[in-house]
Design the sequence.
């Protein structure tokens, strides 16, 4: 009777088996959950939670900086955003993406870097555009994309990519310090999007767990720990300056 019930359950899950095994769990965990009905298998739960978080982070990353982009376009201003901070953030994102590709890490462990890169380049262009330097902004985007192709190609030695990832930590810290300093000097966060800031903070926290679980790479894990702390500082500033109004807007009022 039990064997018959297991057979029915297995037959019911068969249409989903390939999808689950390819994206969410290894076959041994599928068997634990849906053949043995061992839903509290610790190792398998860790894998499923990690994979699920990774997929969620990637899906969220498609839109994470969209509020920031829309806020810049709506205001037709990039006030309060530091282009140097964007460059350092882009360097860190590129290092993580190239390092993950070179080491053949699963896409679920780093995929958000691809979408964050596209959105960060867009923000960098908008900062230049609204600063009256559209041609410079276009040049920035073209030069960056050319460099990216070279970095992820076989032309770039593996040691160079590893060095880029190791450099992420100071790049993240300096980049966030520049943005934090800009916020402090201005006494407000300008066109910085609170939604994007908090989503980045939450995503970097979740990545600590998924990186340890899926890659076991201590260099990437430490990078995300530092990234979480730095994103937390910016998030704290957003809260602190929540009701602060730029001086020129106060005069206009």
Sequence:
């Amino acid at each position: 009777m039990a064997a018959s019930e297991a057979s029915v359950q297995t037959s019911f899950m068969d249409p989903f088996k390939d999808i689950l095994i390819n994206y969410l769990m290894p076959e041994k965990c599928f068997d634990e959950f849906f053949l043995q009905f061992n839903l509290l298998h610790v190792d398998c739960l860790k894998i499923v939670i990690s994979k699920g978080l990774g997929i969620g982070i990637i899906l969220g990353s498609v839109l994470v900086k969209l509020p920031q982009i829309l806020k810049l376009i709506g205001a037709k201003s990039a006030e309060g955003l530091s282009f140097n901070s964007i460059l350092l953030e882009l360097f860190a994102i590129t290092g993580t993406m190239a390092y993950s590709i070179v080491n053949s890490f699963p896409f679920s462990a780093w995929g958000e870097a691809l979408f964050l890169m596209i959105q960060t380049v867009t923000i960098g262009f908008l900062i230049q555009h609204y600063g009256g330097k559209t041609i410079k902004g276009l040049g920035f985007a073209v030069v960056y994309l050319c460099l990216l192709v070279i970095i992820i190609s076989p032309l770039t030695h593996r040691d160079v990519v590893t060095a880029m990832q190791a450099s992420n930590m100071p790049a993240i810290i300096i980049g966030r310090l520049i943005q934090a300093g800009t916020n402090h000097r201005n006494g407000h966060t300008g066109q910085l999007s609170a939604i994007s800031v908090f989503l980045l903070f939450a995503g970097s926290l979740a990545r600590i767990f998924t990186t340890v679980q899926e890659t076991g790479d201590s260099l990437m894990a430490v990078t995300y720990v530092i990234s979480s702390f730095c994103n937390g500082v910016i998030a704290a500033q957003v809260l602190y300056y929540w009701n602060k109004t730029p001086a020129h807007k106060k005069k206009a009022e």
